[in-house]
Design a protein that fits this description.
The protein is an alpha/beta fold and about 200 residues long. The protein has helices at about 5-35, 40-85, 125-145, 175-185, and strands spanning about 90-95, 105-110, 115-120, 150-155, 165, 170. Helix 1 runs antiparallel to helix 2 (about 40-85).
C-alpha cells in the first residue's frame, strides 16, 4: 500500500485552507461593502477585520504548505532511490500509517527477511527524530517476530557520513541503497545490533 504521504496530505490541507481563507476574505469584503452601502459602518469595519484575519490565515496556510512540499519532495527522492531495491526483489512500502502521529515514511524488506524502517529528513534531524525512527522500527519488529528490523534515517540534502547514532543508521540520500544492501549482508559493525 503506497498511500499519500504525510507531507503530501499536509501540503494539500494547506492549499485547501488557502482556498477557504480567500473565499472567506472575499465574502467578508462583500459583506463590508454591502453594510457600508446600507449605512452600517460598524458592521462594515467588523467585516473588514474578519477579511484581514482570513488573509492572515491564507498566509499561514501557505507557509505550512510550502514546508510540507519540501518534505514531500524529499520523500519522493527517497522513493526513487528505493525503487532500485524493489527491482531486485525487495518489498518496498511507502507512507505506512502508524498509530502515532503521521506515518512511517518507508519500509523495506529484503529477500532475506531483514526489515528497514526509513525516516526521511531534508537537511537536519534531532534526537526526537532518531527516537521516533527507533520506535517505528520496534513497532515493525513486534509484527515480524524472528526477523531483524533496522532503524534508518536518511538525510536528503546533506553530506552525511554513514554512521550509527543512538541505534539508528544515519545516511545521506545517495548512500542509502548501498548502506541498506551492506547492512542486509551484515557487513556493518556488530556494535550496531538490530532492533528486536
Amino acid at each position: 500500500m503506497n498511500a499519500m504521504s504525510w507531507p503530501a496530505r499536509q501540503e494539500l490541507k494547506g492549499r485547501i485552507d488557502q482556498v477557504i481563507a480567500v473565499a472567506l476574505a472575499v465574502l467578508a469584503a462583500w459583506v463590508a461593502a454591502f453594510a457600508l452601502r446600507l449605512g452600517f459602518a460598524t458592521a462594515a469595519v467588523i467585516a473588514l477585520l474578519f477579511a484581514g484575519g482570513a488573509l492572515r490565515g491564507f498566509t499561514r496556510a501557505g507557509r505550512r504548505a510550502a514546508r510540507a512540499r519540501i518534505g514531500r519532495l524529499s520523500e519522493r527522492a527517497v522513493r526513487r532511490e528505493l525503487a532500485q531495491l524493489a527491482r531486485e526483489g525487495w518489498r518496498v512500502v511507502h507512507s505506512l500509517r502508524w498509530r502515532r502521529r503521521g506515518d512511517i515514511d518507508h519500509v523495506t524488506i529484503a529477500p532475506s527477511g531483514t526489515g528497514f524502517v526509513i525516516e526521511t529528513k531534508t537537511r537536519t534531524y534531532t534526537q526526537a527524530h532518531l527516537e521516533r525512527t527507533r520506535e517505528a522500527a520496534a513497532a515493525l519488529a513486534a509484527h515480524r517476530p524472528g526477523s531483524a528490523v533496522h532503524a534508518v534515517l536518511c538525510v536528503r540534502h546533506a553530506d552525511v557520513a554513514t554512521h550509527w547514532e543512538h541505534g539508528v543508521l544515519v545516511v545521506g540520500l545517495h548512500r542509502l541503497v548501498p548502506a541498506l544492501r551492506a547492512l542486509e549482508r551484515r557487513s556493518y559493525s556488530d556494535a550496531a545490533p538490530a532492533i528486536a
